[in-house]
Design goal:
The structure holds 2 protein chains of 2 kinds. Chain A is 75% helix and 0% strand. By secondary structure, chain A is mainly α. Chain B folds into 2 domains: 221 residues, Rossmann fold (3-Layer(aba) Sandwich); 66 residues, Alpha-Beta Plaits (2-Layer Sandwich), CATH 3.30.70. Chain B is built from 10 helices and 14 strands. The chains are: A mainly alpha, B alpha/beta.
C-alpha cells in the first residue's frame, strides 16, 4: 500500500526530528507545562468555561491540541525551508517520488511529531488536572486531523517561503494567532458577539472544540459540525499542496 | 538507442535566455562532454535533464521517457551529481546512501552501497556524520548518492571542481569503469578541458545558450590542424615574414612568440629565418594542439 519511496521519506523526516528530540519534543512539552502552571494557578477557581469543569482541566486539552498543531506545522515547514536553503532538497527532487508520496511522507512525519509532543504534554499536564474521557474516539480523530492539517499547512508554507523570515511571518502572523484565538485558553461563548461570530470562521476553533468534546462531552458546536468543517479544510489544503508540488512552485524553476 | 534526447529546449530567466533551442542526442554507452564558459547554459541544461528546471519550450527524454510528463520513469534511469556541495547534516554517510536508495524504491541495497563506498574510498567514513566530512569527502558522497540506484545514465555537473588530484583519479577510474564495463552513459561538464579530452568520446560546446560545436573528440582535435612552436628569443626579433604565423606574443620577459605550424617540416625553415634575422633562441617548445585550443578558437569565433 505504501511505497518504499514514501516509507523512506517518512522515516527520514521522523528520524530528523527524533535526532534532536530535546529541541523538537522536550522543549514544547516544557512550554505547555509552564502555560498550565501559570494560567492554571492564576485562573483556577476564578473562571469556569464549561459546566462543572475546573479551569485547569479545561485548559489541558487546549494546550495538548495547541502543541499538536504548532509542532506538526513546525516539522514539515522547517524541514522544507532548511532543505531549500541548504540545497539538500535536491535529494528529494531528483528521485522518482510522486507528488502524493512527497506530501504524504512530510505530513505523516508531521503528524507523528505533533502526536509525540501532544502525548508528552498530556502525560505531564494530566498530573495537575482531573480529566474525563467522555468520547475518546473524538480525541483521536481530531488530534489526527488537526496534526494532518497543520502538517499540510507546513508543507505549503515551506514551499512558499524562500527565506526563514518569510516562514517566521507565516508562523507568527497566521498560525500563532489562529491557534490562540481558537479557544485554547477560553470558551468562545465567553466572547462578545462580534468576536464570537469571527471565531466561527477560524478552522482552528473546530479542531480544538472537537478535541475538547472528546474529553468533557461538552463543546461550543456539535463535534459532527467540527468534523465536517475540519475534513473539508484538510481536503482543500491537500489539493492546494498537491497543486503546488505538481507545478513545482518554488521548487522546480 | 538514444540515452538522452534533447529537442529544441528553451529556458529564460527574467528575460535572459539561458537556453536558446538546444537540440542534441546522446547515445547509450557514450562518455559525453558538455563544455562551455561560465554562463553558457551547461548547468541549466543539466538541471532540465534532471527535472529540476522546467523548460519553457522543447522536450528532454531519458531512454524515451519525457522528464516532465513521464518523470518517474525518466528519473529512475538517471543519476545526477549536482555541482553544489550539498548534504543533509542529520545523517551519517551510510544513512544518507540508504535513504537515497529508498527514495528510488530500493531496499536492502547494502551490498551495492558497500561497493560504491569502497570504489570511492568512503568505507572508513561510512558511520561518520556528513557534517564532519571534508569537502572532498562530501563530493564523494554526492557521487555515491547519484549511483545508489545503478542508473544507466549518469550526469556529473563539474564533479571535480575544487577537489584534489587523488579524488579526481579515484572518481574518473570508477566512472570510466562504469562506462566501459557496465555500459553506463556518462554526461560530464567540467572546466578542466584536459579531463574532457582524456575521458569523452564526444563533446558539445555551448555558448550563450546555443550549441556551437557538436562532434567526436577526434574530429574536434582535427579541426585545429597542426601544432604550435613557442620560441623565447634571447636577442634579436622576429622577421616580418614570420609575423602572419604568430598566434600569441608576450614581451613581458623578453620576446616570446607562439607560431602556428602544420607539421614538423615547417619548423626548420622558421628557425633558419630567425637565424638569418640575427635572432638568438633562448628556449623553444613544440606543443600539440589540444581541446583547450579548439575551445578558445570556437569561443572566439562567436565574439
Amino acid at each position: 500500500m505504501f511505497s518504499i519511496g514514501f516509507r523512506t521519506l517518512f522515516y527520514k523526516e521522523s528520524l530528523r526530528f527524533w535526532k534532536v528530540a530535546t529541541q523538537t519534543v522536550g522543549a514544547p512539552v516544557v512550554t505547555a507545562m509552564l502555560y498550565l502552571l501559570i494560567f492554571g494557578h492564576v485562573l483556577d477557581g476564578r473562571v469556569e468555561m464549561l459546566d462543572g469543569v475546573s479551569y485547569t482541566s479545561f485548559l489541558v486539552p487546549g494546550l495538548v491540541m495547541m502543541s499538536v498543531l504548532q509542532n506538526s506545522f513546525a516539522n514539515s515547514s522547517s524541514s522544507l525551508i532548511q532543505s531549500k536553503i541548504t540545497g539538500n532538497l535536491v535529494f528529494i527532487l531528483l528521485p522518482p517520488l510522486s507528488h502524493v508520496e512527497i506530501l504524504g511522507a512530510y505530513v505523516a512525519a508531521a503528524v507523528v511529531r505533533g502526536l509525540a509532543v501532544g502525548a508528552g504534554v498530556f502525560i505531564i499536564t494530566a498530573w495537575f488536572a482531573h480529566l474525563e474521557f467522555a468520547a475518546p474516539v473524538w480525541i483521536v480523530v481530531f488530534a489526527l486531523l488537526g496534526a494532518a492539517i497543520l502538517g499540510t499547512m507546513g508543507v505549503i508554507a515551506g514551499i512558499w517561503a524562500e527565506k526563514f523570515d518569510q516562514l517566521a511571518a507565516f508562523q507568527n502572523f497566521l498560525i500563532m494567532p489562529a491557534t490562540f484565538l481558537a479557544g485554547v485558553f477560553y470558551s468562545i461563548q465567553k466572547l462578545p458577539p462580534f468576536w464570537l461570530a469571527v471565531s466561527h470562521f477560524n478552522p482552528f476553533f473546530y479542531m480544538i472544540d472537537g478535541f475538547r468534546y472528546g474529553f468533557f462531552g461538552q463543546s461550543d458546536v456539535s463535534p459532527w459540525t467540527s468534523l465536517a468543517i475540519v475534513s473539508v479544510f484538510l481536503v482543500v489544503l491537500t489539493a492546494v499542496a498537491i497543486n503546488l508540488l505538481k507545478r513545482g512552485y518554488n521548487l522546480r524553476h | 538507442m538514444t540515452a538522452i534526447q534533447i529537442d529544441s529546449v528553451e529556458k529564460s530567466y527574467k528575460g535572459l535566455k539561458a537556453l536558446k533551442g538546444v537540440s542534441l542526442d546522446i547515445q547509450e554507452g557514450e562518455f559525453f562532454g558538455l563544455l562551455g564558459p561560465n554562463g553558457a547554459g551547461k548547468t541549466t541544461l543539466i538541471s532540465t535533464i534532471a527535472g529540476l528546471i522546467r523548460p519553457d519550450a522543447g522536450t528532454v527524454r531519458i531512454h524515451g521517457h519525457d522528464v516532465v510528463s513521464d518523470f518517474r520513469e525518466a528519473r529512475k534511469r538517471l543519476g545526477v551529481v549536482p555541482q553544489e556541495l550539498v548534504f543533509d547534516p542529520f545523517f551519517t554517510v551510510r544513512e544518507t546512501l540508504r535513504l537515497q536508495s529508498g527514495y528510488f524504491g530500493i531496499r536492502n541495497n547494502d551490498a551495492w552501497i558497500d561497493e560504491v563506498m569502497h570504489n570511492l574510498d568512503l568505507t572508513e567514513k561510512a558511520d561518520v556524520n556528513m557534517r564532519a566530512l571534508s569537502g572532498g569527502m562530501k563530493r564523494r558522497v554526492l557521487v555515491a548518492q547519484a549511483l545508489v540506484h545503478r542508473p544507466p545514465v549518469i550526469v556529473l555537473d563539474e564533479p571535480t571542481a575544487g577537489v584534489d588530484v587523488e579524488l579526481r583519479q579515484t572518481l574518473w577510474k570508477f566512472i570510466a569503469r562504469l562506462n566501459r564495463e557496465g555500459g553506463h552513459t556518462v554526461v560530464l561538464t567540467t572546466h578542466y578541458l584536459e579531463e574532457a579530452q582524456a575521458m569523452c568520446q564526444r563533446v558539445a560546446m555551448l555558448r550563450r545558450g546555443n550549441v556551437v560545436a557538436l562532434d567526436t573528440m577526434s574530429a574536434l582535435l582535427r579541426r585545429v590542424s597542426g601544432s604550435q612552436l613557442v620560441v623565447h628569443l634571447k636577442s634579436g626579433d622576429l622577421p616580418d615574414s614570420l609575423r602572419p604565423l604568430v598566434s600569441h606574443d608576450e614581451h613581458a620577459n623578453g620576446n616570446k612568440y607562439t607560431l602556428r605550424v602544420n607539421d614538423y617540416s615547417e619548423v626548420e625553415p622558421i628557425l633558419a629565418r630567425l637565424r638569418e634575422n640575427g635572432a638568438v633562441i633562448d628556449e623553444m617548445q613544440l606543443e600539440q594542439a589540444d581541446l583547450e585550443d579548439i575551445f578558445i578558437q570556437i569561443m572566439e569565433e562567436g565574439k
